[in-house]
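Re-run with default settings, no changes from the original entry. Doing this only to confirm the output is reproducible before filing.
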Amino acid sequence: MKLSLPLAYKGAPLSGIKYDLSPRALEQWNPAIKAAESDNTISIFDVIGVDYWTGEGVTAKRIAGALRAIGERDVTVLINSPGGDMFEGLAIYNLLREHKGEVTVKVLGLAASAASVIAMAGDNIQAARAGFLMIHNAWILVAGNRHDMREYADYLEPFDRSMADLYAARTGIEFKDMQKIMDAGSWIGGSDAVEQGFADELLPSDQIQIDENSETRAAVKLDIALAKAGMPRSERKKLLAEYKAVTPCAGGTITPCADFIGTFSPLSNELKGVFQ
């Protein structure tokens, strides 16, 4: 059954703002969790927006193209994502909200941040028992003086209010209470998501598959280490691009050669620990 869902706020990016992923969301994300796909299925198994190591993650442009191909038929959206660009997430939510067919969302592993906003577009939302939704206020990286900071804070408020409105409309939780949940940066497990109204039912476990040979796992671990060390998104992107170009050491181990590790000093000790 098609639901009448609220429209997400359509603001434009403000100069000087860069959106970043939560290091904890990256740490909790297992990119190997996938599902057997069928016709009329859209997979969101990556970062929302620009992806650091492939150049492009899940974008509104890609989702719009997939929906055009599907037409007005019902669609299933599979989600396992640590989130990412808020603008892309809100745009994708609006695209799914306006789709003529019924939208079924399945949270297979993690729907964090912008990905949790996308999940709210489902007419029916299923969550894995071991899965999680993570909701919080918009998280950004900014540069400027104290006047700029006040401007950025005021600028972000309507986006946070819009996200709280979406969650509240879906769950029935009071708007002010939802704002408190977002302020806390809350992790909501599958069963709790159903109980609190973020999901309609649990996902049958046999629909989930684990790909132990995921090619993105090493890059994700590297990005987690860099994010935890406080490295900005732009610098992480450059280093991950360099990581892709490095030839592994003899023996096929995942640990790059010694000269590559040296380029990350003084972070090398932490990085070595990640890949052991």
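Confidence is low (pLDDT under 50) at residues 249-276. The domain at 17-210 is CATH 3.90.226.10 (2-enoyl-CoA Hydratase; Chain A, domain 1).
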